[in-house]
């Protein structure tokens, strides 16, 4: 539903997990690359050299923030492309090296973003063996389940850092430790490729509140995107550890070390690097501020609407995420209802909202009913959130629950 928003209309935005506004500092550094410094980075004259130098600077900045090398950063169009490049890139490179596609085994969790799950399903149709790990009711992957799923022919494990729907934080460093131990014990790849299986993490939701140190996390591949960190949409990167071999997914020119063809989008790359820099600079301060607001929201809504239940762990959770189950409501209906009253929230990943009223597959994966999956709402907080907004949202929600519980039949 497209609706014009007048200047007089007060909107309360609580879907920062879906998209964030571009910060003024980020927009400022981008502007000249739209109009004055517009050259093609591949050109061998001055305009191209200036732009190429700027992109190199952005790459070095991103690399430094991730404790990585410049050559380990591949700029992409965002999280979805980065995930696809990591997954298909690894499998294609292994197949090219002589490994049969039906001989490969890969592992992921049942609560991953669609841009991870859909590539896995596609590979499964081609013959790749896939294990989908469930989670506990708290939404955390159990290390024991990963250990059980590992096989001699496991080549890739992909587990997200922070879940986009319920905000749960996965034990990436522990998973990496498990894989390092497994590599030493696995005779199949000891000579052929002692680095297998690779560990990939989609960290798109992490930079604002969690440190991303590739060395400390011991990851092989990591996905990031601009739109979740007050940067521009349509840009992101894939961190690829130097000795990890992947093939390109987009074919064409030799950009990005021949791993991502296409003219570099200079303004977006510059903006992404700046947004990531600011995210790290303000990380600790923002974590404390947003967590106070998040806890205030949860405490207040529990008092006002006692039947509400939190989906996922409260302790191992991103500070900006509140995903709640409200019995006897239709989540999609309530999103539209709240929107009509100036409140923006969600039921699930924005990438899945257009799928209709199927409910959240993430919440079902926690072992909950389909009714709970369809009766849950996600509120994600950000820089502009204040207590007054939270008070208003909870008051409106309380009133609407009384009016509209059981309004729609839940299938």
Automatic annotation (TrEMBL):
Cofactors named for this entry: pyridoxal 5'-phosphate
The reaction(s) this protein catalyses: (sulfur carrier)-H + L-cysteine = (sulfur carrier)-SH + L-alanine
All residue ranges annotated as the Aminotransferase class V domain in the record: 12-393
Gene3D superfamilies with a match to the protein in the record: 1.10.260.50, Aspartate Aminotransferase, domain 1, Type I PLP-dependent aspartate aminotransferase-like (Major domain)
Pfam family, one: Aminotran_5
GO MF terms held by the record: cysteine desulfurase activity; iron-sulfur cluster binding; metal ion binding
UniProt entry keywords in alphabetical sequence: Iron, Iron-sulfur, Metal-binding, Pyridoxal phosphate, Transferase
UniProt EC number: 2.8.1.7
Keyword Transferase: yes
Similarity comment: family membership: Belongs to the class-V pyridoxal-phosphate-dependent aminotransferase family. NifS/IscS subfamily.
PANTHER family reported in the protein's UniProt record: CYSTEINE DESULFURASE, CYSTEINE DESULFURYLASE FAMILY MEMBER
Designated name of the protein: cysteine desulfurase
Organism name: Candidatus Campbellbacteria bacterium RIFCSPLOWO2_02_35_12
The organism's taxonomic lineage, starting at the top: Bacteria, Candidatus Campbelliibacteriota
